[in-house]
Structures are given as C-alpha cells and as structure tokens.
Amino acid sequence: MARRFRGKSVHKVDAKGRVSIPASFRRVLEEGDPDWRTDDNPQMIIVFGSKGGKCHEGYSIRAMDKVDDIISDLPLFSDEREFYQAILETDSDYATIDDNGRMILSPDMRAMIGVKKEVVFAGKGDTFQMWEPAAYDAELGRIREWGAAQKNPFAMLQSPKAEG
Predict the structure, then answer these.
(1) What does pTM read for this prediction?
(2) C-alpha distances in angstroms, 164 versus 156, 159, 160, 161?
(3) Is residue 1 scored above 80 in pLDDT?
(4) Which helix (H) or strand (E) holds 30?
(5) Is residue 112 exposed (0-12), middle (13-18) or buried (19+ Cβ within 10 Å)?
(6) What is the spatial distance between Cα 47 and Cα 58, in angstroms, rounded to a whole number?
(7) CA neighbor of 85 nearest in space, from 98, 69, 96
(8) How far out from the chain centre does Cα 51 lie?
(9) Cα dihedral sign for 122, 65, 31, 91?
C-alpha cells in the first residue's frame, strides 16, 4: 500500500516565496512520481484555490492521474466534465521540489489564500492542503463542530472488515 499524506505542520515562507515541504510529504511525492529516481527532485501538482479559494491542494503525479482518469470518463463537452477540467486541470500546475526540499509559492498563489509569512501543511491522505494558519484553524473548528453534532461521526468507517 502506498504512503499517504498525514499530519499537520506550520512552515515559514521566505521573501522569495520558498517554503519547505514536510519531509514525510516529500517521501509520498517521491513514491507518487513515476519519473522520480534517487537523487532526483519529484514533481507534484498544485490545484489552486480549493475549498472555495481558501487553500491550495497538492497531489502526487499518480494521485492526479487517478483524478484525470475519472474526468476523462465523463461525457465530452458535458457541464460536469467542463467544471472538473476547469477546477482540477486548468486551475492547476506542475511544481518541482528543489534540492533543499522546498517549493515556490508565487506572489499570486500566496495572495489567493492570504499567506504572508507562514503556511500550514495539512495531510489529507491522497492529497495535502496548504492554508494560511488562521484560515486553517477556522476550517478545523468548522470540521470539529460538524463531528460534535453527529450521533456517531465514525459510523461510516465501521465495516464488516473492520469489525472482524
């Protein structure tokens, strides 16, 4: 089974927009880049403005290939396909991690989600998100409120396999 993006960490963004990607995330990106070789720098895909413009979402090459396959299966010229292509293919770009484990968040990318000096990396399994810290805290609060309002928020995770 492939590694997944897990955990949360806050990283400083320098004046040039460089930010270190968490080391554990880099391992997932290496594993998820079919062209990556030892002593090479993995590539990834950044989808701009996820969650209503509040964060950017990072995908390994393989994870985005799965998404692209789903989009390709939709009927040509359908509204659904046009929507997903615009959000996930047009409003995205390749990014390369440098030799120091950093990527560049351009001024436009930082402005889009309100990042100034720090960015939160949040693992989401197949993807990870990059947030302005206060916006991430607000989103986490919203998610926790939803969970608290559920009778059993973990019921969906219970299956016959998990119980046996």
Answers:
(1) 0.89
(2) 16, 9, 6, 5
(3) no
(4) helix 23-31
(5) middle
(6) 6
(7) 69
(8) 11
(9) negative
